[in-house]
C-alpha cells in the first residue's frame, strides 16, 4: 500500500507539472532585502487532504555565498498572489530569503514528497519531484543606507548580552512596544477573520462574539497614498495604526498567531477554525503585507505562538505533527523578517486557575524544534504568569538552556518590577546563556496602562514599570492595556487613547539611547538613597539614577571628579544643572533639581 501511495503522488505531480517554468525572482537584490522565489510545482489546494500540500510536500532551498550557507524552508503559495486573488489553489511554491552578504548567491532546490515529510529533518526522506535539483544564481549589492526601518540596520540578533543588536550597524535595540491588543491580527480586512463563539454569557476579559473584530477606523487618516493595501483598498486601518505607532516611537507589536479557545477566539492561520494541518494561503499572504510594512517602519514582530488557554490544543502540548507543521509554516512564511521575537506562549505553564499546561520538557521540545527549522538567528522567549512562584517554577529550569534567549515577563505588582527583572538578569548571567529580559505585561490585569482620559499623568506606571524596568537592565518593555477600560487588550481600536503615555515611553528610551552606554551598565541600587531610587552604573565612569520622588538624594562614588546633570522624565528637554554641579568621591549629596522638587527626576553623573 505504501508503494501504491507513493506512485499515486508521483503520477499526480507528473500529470500536473509536465511543463515547469523558470523560477520567478521578486524583490530588490540588496543586502537585507527580502527576495521571494516562486517555483512551479504540483497543482494543489489548501483544501486537499491526500496529498496535503502543507504536510506531504517539502520545499527546501539551500543558499550559499562563500562560507555562508542557509537551508531555508519553502511553502505552498497557491497561485502566488492569493493576497489579492483569494486563491486557495495553484501550482506555486515559494521561498523567502534575506541575504546578509553582497556578491553572487547560489541556490539549490530540494523538493520531495511523502507522508508528513514537511516536518521531517531527514534530507533524503520521501521521493524527489521537479523542481528538485534545479539551481540558479543572483547577485546582491550592498545595503541601502537610506532604506526605512530595519532595512538599513540589518538583522536584530541575540549576541550573548542583555540587549539585542543590529548586525549591520552594531546598534543595541531598546524595545518600546505595544502589548495590546493581543488579538492585533483579528482585523476584519484579513480573509476568513471572524470571532468564533457561542457563549450566551461572556466573562470579563473575553471578547464578545457578537461584536466585530478590529477595524482600526480611527487610524484610516494615518494611511498614506502609495502605502500597502490589498483587494481594492483593504488594509488601510491596520497600516494606518502601525504608521501612528511608529510616529510615537513604538518599535514592537505583540500579537497572538493562534487564540482558538483563548480570550479572543478570532486569530488562527488555518484554512478553517477546526483545521490543524492546513493553512489559509490568502490570509497569511495578507499578514505578510502588514509584516513587511512593519519592517519598513522599524517595528519588531512579536509572535506569541499560543496562550495559556490553548497551550495544549496542539498535540496535547507535545511537539508532534500539529505543532511542528504550525511552527514550520510560520517560520517558512515569516522567519526571514529582520526583527522577530518568537514567544513560546502567553502565561505558559500550569497555574492555580489553569491546572493543565505545558511542562518544562514540552517547552524545551518546542523551542528545540523552532530553532532547528529556522535558518536565521532568531530570538526565542517564553511569557510568564504574573506571580513570583509561577515565574520561578517555569523559568528556573530554563536558566542556561541553549535554545531560549530570555523571559517575556508579566509582573503583577509594579513595585516588584525592578527587583524581578534584575533577579533574572543576574541569575542568567551565572550560566553560559545570559538572558535578554523584557517586561511585556504589567498588572493589575484590569488596569495595565489606562487610557489618558483616566490617568493623564501615568505616574505610578512611569515610576515603577517604565523607569523601574530600564534601570534594572531590561531590554525594553511592551505596554498592556488591561481589560476594564475603553480601548482595552481585546478591543483597542485607537492607539491615540494612550498618546500621553507613548510620549513618556519615548522620552525614556531616547534618553538611554542618546546619553548612556547602557549595554555596559549594571544595576547598582545599593549606591543610592533613598531606598526607593534606582541606579544603573558603569562604575567609575557614568551613573544614572532615577528618583520616583526627590528626597535628600545621595550617592556613593569612587574617588574622582564628576559632572552632575538633571533630566526631566515627564517632559524631556535638555540636561539641566541642579544646585550641585560637580562631585568628588565618597557618599555625597546630589542637591536639588532645577525645578519641581519633590517630583520624579533622573540624575546623570559622569567622570570628568
Quick overview of this protein structure:
It contains ten helices and 26 strands. The protein has 608 residues and is α/β, with parallel strands linked by helices. It folds into three domains: 2-142, Immunoglobulins (Immunoglobulin-like); 151-519, TIM Barrel; 524-607.
Defining key terms:
TIM Barrel, Immunoglobulin-like, 26 strands, globular, eight-stranded parallel β-sheet, 608 residues, alpha/beta, seven-stranded antiparallel β-sheet
Could you give the distance between the termini? 81 Å
Return the structural class.
Answer: alpha/beta
Over all CA atoms, what is the radius of gyration? 25 Å
Q: Indicate the mean pLDDT.
A: 95
The CATH architecture of the largest domain can be given as Alpha-Beta Barrel
Helix percentage: 10-25%
What composes the largest sheet?
A: 8 strands, parallel
The number of strands is 26
Question: CATH class of the largest domain, please?
Answer: Alpha Beta
Strand order within the widest sheet? 18-17-16-15-14-13-12-19
Fraction of residues in β-strands:
15-25%
User: Number of domains in the coordinates?
Assistant: 3
